[in-house]
Sequence to fold (415 residues):
Amino acid sequence: MTPFTRCLKVSAVALSGLTLCAQGAQVPQHIDIKQLSKTVEDVVVPLPNEIFGALNKLGAVNWKEHVRSDKGTNFTERPRIALLLGSVIADGFVAVQAEDAPAVKEIGQRVLALAKGIGVGNSITPHAKAIIEAADKRNWESVRQELDRTQNSVQQAMNEVHDEKLSQLVSLGGWLRGTEVLTSVVTKHFSADGAELLHQPDLLSYFQTRLQGMPEFNVSILREIEAALVQVKPLIDVGNARIPAESVKKINEITTRLGNGIVTRD
Amino acid sequence: MNALANVLLRGSFLLLPLIALKPAVFASVDDAQSFALQAAEPYVKQGFQVREDYWGGDLGSGEKKAVRQQLFKGNEYWFWLGTEVDRAKVSIHVYDSDGKLAEEADGWEKGHFAAAHIIPKTTGSYFIIVSVEQSPEERTHWALVYGFR
Fold:
């Protein structure tokens, strides 16, 4: 490091310190959330690996037993393809946790086929290729990044052609599969901290509202999901109370049933 | 050759006003996102996974926007806010669902970048409050990205 660079870095640190001090003095310690209602953006849907990462920190998870081999039927209805696509991308994150290269490669191919089926194949081809190449090199960080890019590109492509509802179904499919795996792990090795990861009432309300806005999709699985979310809501919307083992088991039963419904034909 | 030079010269004069207007007219949330990602860059080396998705819009000076976000106990998060407007000053803070400031003390604001750090004590909804404190523009694009580890 040259003396100039060192000097620059010291100045930058000093400046940061000053900025932090100034910031600390001005930030309100409390705000009225109710007053924000007009300016609040929709809840951000987390990626499955965000939850899996938190789960991993609670103890070793045998991710291999959660890798799914059934990647689903070939559907023609676009809402069904969108749901399945989200679910398969979530499977990709599970396979990355399990460091299962053959499963990741298979998922990469499946994602591409589903994206083509829904008319957004072009935007996915480079990502699917990158997923397969990174899996070959066992570069799991790259696979994770490409799965995130895949989901983002799929949803962007859908939004560009005003298929926002299908884009929301991709998120829903991923969230359901992520919740199925989370509850399966926590059911096997229950811990209060693991169960707390299910505390996502706003996210659930978000999906409920979105599903209510899709009456034009005459697909029975969507109505099943809608009804199931009504059952799940009181189990996770517990305020400051803990989510008990029975609730986790119940949510796992519900999400497993829905997961099977998403991958198989009616 | 002279005719070609003439056409090019005239063409470039026609383009000049467009180039001059670029920051105000053609700047977009995508530009703001580039700055937010620039702020995030050093953290990737520390193991943070930065989401591809981002949230953005435009705000007037003194205006705020809240983004509701599901955070998980056990993870650590950084949120980065950026704008392409050079002399703008932006800020970002994280509050829990009760409206209590929930961020760590090492958040920072440096002109058209700002960042907030949170290690959630509980799993649940949080509010990310973004604000354009000052700006020479009437409306200022902002973009928010986040990373976790």
Residues 1-22 of chain A have pLDDT under 50 and may be disordered. Chain A has eleven helices and one strand.
